[in-house]
Amino acid sequence: MTENITFDLNQLYSQIKEQGEREGVTDAEGYLSLVEDVVNEKVDVGELHSDQNIEQIIEDLRTKWTDYEKNLKIH
Questions:
Q1: Burial class of residue 8 (count of CB atoms within 10 Å of its CB; 0-12, 13-18, 19+)
Q2: pTM of the predicted structure, to 2 decimals
Q3: I need a surface site. Which of 1, 58, 64, 73 has the fewest CB within 10 A?
Q4: Side-chain half-sphere of 72: how many Cα atoms within 13 Å?
Q5: How far apart are CA 20 and CA 23, in angstroms?
Q6: Hey, what's the torsion of the CAs at 56, 57, 58, 61, to 10 degrees?
Q7: H/E element holding 3?
């Protein structure tokens, strides 16, 4: 029996954004590092699985840097 896992990139981005705000991440390098850390942590705890395209997920989240940066300017 396979487990049906629903993946929501926007939900994961929201978690990254919140964590980045708490940790004071304000530059692209810090954001990119945070993305990798959060995704790898999700894999480690089983919330994401290695059969999912982890590299694509990381790349998709990396492209959200401009959204993250815009959010910084609002706050």
A1: exposed
A2: 0.85
A3: 1
A4: 17
A5: 5
A6: 120
A7: none
